[in-house]
Specification:
3-stranded mixed β-sheet, single chain, elongated, alpha+beta, 4 helices, YefM-like fold, 84 residues
Length: 84
């Protein structure tokens, strides 16, 4: 995926070039040198914003098996209740 960066002036002067570049990856539009907007295809936007599903579906997502996660063990002791 190629990421393209154009100034807002360049974007206004050649919108079709930015639209073509968005087929290859996101186009970052800058204002005064700072990223201000992102142009992407509707398909990419829908892919990024669609609901993933329930927790089981999220845990079954590709690539998560490569994540190493070993939480610390917690020891919970029992103590008497205080009624004061």
């Amino acid at each position: 995926m190629a990421i393209t960066s154009v100034s807002s002036r360049e974007f206004n002067q050649d919108i079709s070039r930015a639209k073509k570049a968005s087929q290859q990856g996101p186009v970052i539009i800058t204002d005064r040198g700072r990223p201000a907007h992102v142009l992407m295809t509707m398909e990419e936007y829908q892919r990024l914003t669609r609901p993933v599903g329930n927790l089981v579906d999220r845990l079954a997502m590709p690539g998560l098996s490569d994540v190493e996660f070993e939480p610390d063990k917690v020891s919970i002791g029992i103590r008497e209740a205080e009624f004061s």
